[in-house]
Each structure stands twice: as structure tokens, then as C-alpha cells.
Amino acid sequence: MKQSLQLAGVLLALTAGAFGQTPAPGAGAGQPAAAAAKPITDVDLKSVDTPKPEVRAKGDPDGSLTGTAADVAIADAKKGLTIADLVNQAGQNKIAINFVWTLVTGYLVMFMQLGFALLETGLARAKNANHTMMMNIGVYGIGMLAYWMIGFSLQMGGVGAVANLGGTPPLSAEYAFTLFGKPFGIFGQNGFFLMHNGTNDVAVMVLFLFQMVFMDTAATIPTGAAIERWKFSAFAISSFVFAAFIYPLFANWAWGGGWLSNLGTNFGLGKGYVDFAGSGVVHAVGGLSALAIAMVLGPRIGKFTRQGKPQAILAHDLVLVITGCLILAFGWFGFNPGSTLGASTSGNLRIGAIAVNTMLASAGGMMSAMFYMWVAYGKPDASMTGNGFLAGLVAITAPCAFVNPVGAVIIGLIAGVLVCVAVAFFERVMKIDDPVGAVSVHGVCGIWGVISVGLLADGKSNFGSAWNGVNGSVTGLFYGDAGQLVAQLIGVSTLIGAVFSASLVLYLVVDLFVGQRTSAKSEMEGLDLPEMGALAYPEFDLTSRGAEV
Amino acid sequence: MPNIKYSSHEREKSVILVGIVVAVLGFVISLLSLGMASTINGRLVVVLLGLGVSLLGIIGLINRAYLKNPIWKR
Questions:
Q1: Which of these, B32, B23, B33, lies nearest to B56 by C-alpha position?
Q2: CA B71, CA B74: separation in Å to the nearest integer?
């Protein structure tokens, strides 16, 4: 047992060395016990006890025999256990922890697809339920294949070493041009089909899975703004192009080593554009794309009177809506904490703070939206309370790793009010029919999240002592760095000016060749039969089919 | 009458295209802030100007063009 403890001590010491952390003050010199410690050699490891096979055969009810020196992988059976084996095991354990963390959180983000599906379907009318669910499952498969073929490469093909995942060395080719005397990374070039240039790699696979579910989250946002009138064939083509080109390009600029992430190193603007888990990359890209498709499609029949006054078109199932919101909030615990891409290595222990910030902001958003609607309209509207809940989550997605809990609540509270005001603005002023509030929740509050980094990042986070290649912690205007706010605003300008425009051009081109909107007859009948060939609720056929609202 | 409607439709399309160009121009202005200005405040002003131009293109031109002949008036 004593030798086992010695071995544990060696492992701990080696682990600290492997992770490159500096010793704690006071350790080493001046501590007689440490100075007198005898270095442990390979010979010492020979005498480490391991459970005998006959003992192991009796079982291990208290867990004391499982996970011992016998479980350390040995490179050379003749030499037996060596210190080199221990060092390698420590390194592999770090990467294994990070792989498992990233994969499991990725699975949680994938589960958000169900949240979106229920939320959107609940807010649609019963006669469009099958069509809405089909769009939500369709975008998963269509988007994934487009991303696998093209999008992932454009986004991450030049990201370079992702140290948390063991390096990802094959992702090393970024196309860049020179502007203002500085390199501007535009897109990655390695990783097409996950086979190109050595990208059939274990770390690349983990990164692909995590990034793919993020892309799919963005790709499913426009469907919410387009329900009840989007032709399925046009949706399929549009989603493919969105996943292959539009999302990956902005994601490259922000996360893949592109020009926005380098605004700090190249132009001295804070730590460059900072968007920890994607208020901008995922939500604003999806939300602005949702605005573009809502414009191209136009409002649903009956949404506005002939005088242009908006009419309420009621959700068919508020139970689905709130269930969807809660599933999304659960998935967000993968979305934000998972964006560390690991749980081991300095800074990654912020995962707890990130998770708490995430839930606090959602509570702030929910509360402020609920009370806003209660005061303004006399009742705490369920769908807007749900939207406020999501607005807080969307807004905290970019700053979750860089703000303190008070900042997180402030961000959520503002988002909750913002989403209510934005829904009214888009409906009454711009006459945009956005049945689920996707533009307001994801577009507007996504942009707010990006800006909030530039205001409220408190400079206390530490992810390897640098971010985007700039030493120090991310710090916003209120904590002393105005340059960070400028970097964030350049990101916002790129989203509004470039991403929205690219999305609009995409939808207009598809409209030109395929037509984006279903016929008025199909829309009146409900899209389930004309577009999908089957009703979601056949037993409701006699009462709901062909109904105006 | 059909000719008038057709030309009106074409004009809306043109305004939408102009709106897209203006929205992209706003982005370009923000980008140029990196080369045009060297101070944080200078860059902030130019970026905000770019944002304003993009919003003008989207709300003032593109959205307005779509509201010329909306579905609820047909």
C-alpha cells in the first residue's frame, strides 16, 4: 500500500510537469523534505504491488483493486513499467478526459435538435406539424453531409494545433491574403470528407463532431422563421449551401484562425474578436439568415390584415413549446461548458463557472421577459417567457467564460427585455412574420451577446494566460479595454453586413430557380399533405384540415 | 396594366439588390477602419458608421422594397 501511495505521488508530480504548470510558491527550495526526496527511478517501479490475479478473480466490491499500476500501459513487456510509461499515461489521460468531455457535451448539443423541433412544431399550427418536424430532422442530415464534405474544411482546415485535443496537426492550411500589411485568414483548406491531407485523425474526429452539432444548431434556426410556408425542396437546397459555405466562413473568421480572431495580434484590438461558444458564430448567423429567409418568403396568409395590422396566429401546443425550451436549456450545458474543448489543462476548470453563468443568464432572461409581458400586456405570456429564457442563453453564449455571475445575470436580464422589444419591432415596424421569434432570440440577442463581451468581460478568466494569441485575459470596456469592444463591433458589422447579405443572396438565387414559397393553396390546406404526404395528427383531420388558422 | 406591374416588380428587385450592396458597403467601411484609423476612438466611430450604413441598407432599402407589394395587399 505504501508503494502504491509512492506511485500516486510520482504520478501527480509527473502530471504537473506534463501540463507545464509552474510550482506553487514556496514549494521546492527551502523545504527540507522536498530537497531530501530521493528521485524515483524505473527500478523503484518494479516493486510496486499490483493485485494478484487470484485476488482480482474474487471481485472488487469496494473499488480498491480496480485502476492500479496494472492498468498503466507498458511499452515494452521485457522492461516492465517505466517512468516513460507513466508520463505517456498521464498525457493520454489528459487527452482522454478532454475527448470524453468534448464528445459528451457534443452529444448534449445534438440533443438540442429535439428542443428546436418541439419548440418550432408547437408554435406552428397542427396542419403543419409534420412539415415542421421534417425540416428539423432534415436539416440535421442535410447539414451534416454538407459540413462533412465541404464546411468543416473551410471552417477548421487551418485552425492549427488544438492543444486540448492533442494537437490536430493535420488542420494546418489556412488561405489568407494580405490587407493593411497583415494576413487575413479567409478559409481553411484541409479536411474535405474528413480524409483529405491526413485528417482521418482521432482528434480531428472529436473536433468535427463538436463543430458539426454547432453548425446544425445554426442551420436549424432559419426553419423557425420560415415555418408554414417554406417549400421543402427549397429548404433542402438552401440548408445544404448554408452548412457548406455561409456558416463555415464566418466560423473560420472567428474560430478557425481567420481574420476576426486575429484583430488582437494584427491590430491591437483587445484579444481579437471573442465569441466563446457562439452568440455570434452560431446564433447571430442563424438569426440573420432567418431574417433573410423571412423577408424572401413574406408573411403567412392571414398574418397581416389588408391594412398591415399584425394578427396573432396561435401556437397549436404550448406544452411542446415549453418542453422544447427546457430541452434546449439542458443542451446548453453542453454548448457553453463544452466549448472549452476539454476539462483538463489550465483554464478548463472554468467549466463550473461557465455552467453557472449559463443558468443564471437563462433565469435573468426568463424573469425579465415574463415580467415585461406581464406589465405591458397584463399576462405573463408563455411563449414569450420561453423566448426570454432562450434569449438569456443565447446572449450568455459568447461571454460565458469571461464574465462574473453578476455580469451573467445582467446580460440575461437585458436579453429578456430585448427579445420582447425586438419581436414587436420586427412584427409591427418591419412587418416580418417570424412565427417563433428566431430573428429576435438568435439574431438580436446573439448580437447583444457579442457586444456584451466587449463591455462586461472582467479580465479574470485564464485560459493558458492568453486568448487568440494575445497575452492576458479578455477584458471589456467597463474593466478597462475599449479595444475589445471595437473588435466585437467589427464582428457585429461582419454579421450584419456580410453574413446577412450572403444569406439573402443565397435565398434569392434558390428562389429564382426553385421557388422558396409553397403555393397559397398548399399553405391554406396546411403543408403536411401537399409537401410531406401525411398528416402529423390524422385523427384531427376532420377538424383542423383546411382551417384558416 | 400588366406592364406597369411588371416594371414595378423589377424596380423592387433593383432596390433589393441596391440594398444588398449598401449592406455590404457598411461591412467594408467597418473593415476599412482597420486601415483608416489608428486610434481606438477613431476605429470605433468608423465601425459604428459602417454598422449604420448596413442597417440602412437592410431596413431602409431591402425591407422597404419587400413592403411595396406585400402579400396582404394582393
A1: B23
A2: 5
| Distance between CA atoms of residues A143 and A215, nearest Å | 8
Q: What percent of chain B has pLDDT over 70?
A: 89
**What pTM was estimated for this model as a whole?**
0.91
Reported ipTM exceeds the 0.85 cut: yes
A8 has pLDDT over 80: no
Q: What is the pLDDT of residue A548?
A: 47
pLDDT on residue A347: 76
Q: What is the pLDDT of residues A294-327, one digit of tens each?
A: 999 999 999 999 999 999 999 999 999 999 999 9
Query: Cβ separation of A485 and B55 shorter than 8 Å?
Result: no
Query: Please, what is the Cα angle at B51 between B47 and B54, to 5 degrees?
Result: 140
Whether B11 and B41 have beta carbons less than 8 Å apart is answered as no
Max Cα separation, chain A? 89
Domain boundaries along the sequence of chain B? 10-69
Spell out the SS3 assignment of B2-63.
HHHHHHHHHHHHHHHHHHHHHHHHHHHHHHHHHHHCCCHHHHHHHHHHHHHHHHHHHHHHHH
**Residue range A472-486, pLDDT digits in tens:** 999 999 999 999 999
CA distance A274 to A253: 11
Cβ–Cβ below 8 Å for B27 and A431: no
- Per-residue pLDDT of A104-136, as tens digits, reads 999 999 999 999 999 999 999 999 999 999 999
Q: What is the DSSP letter of A352?
A: H
Of A303, A305, A497, the CB nearest to B50: A497
A150 Cβ partners below 8 Å, 6+ apart?
A192, A244, A245, A248
- Å from B7 to nearest chain A CA? 17
Q: Judge whether B16 and A501 are in contact, CB under 8 Å.
A: no
Name the grid cell of A92: 493520454
Contact assignment for A500 to B28 by CB distance below 8 Å: no
Query: How far, in Å, CA of A93 to CA of A18, rounded?
Result: 11
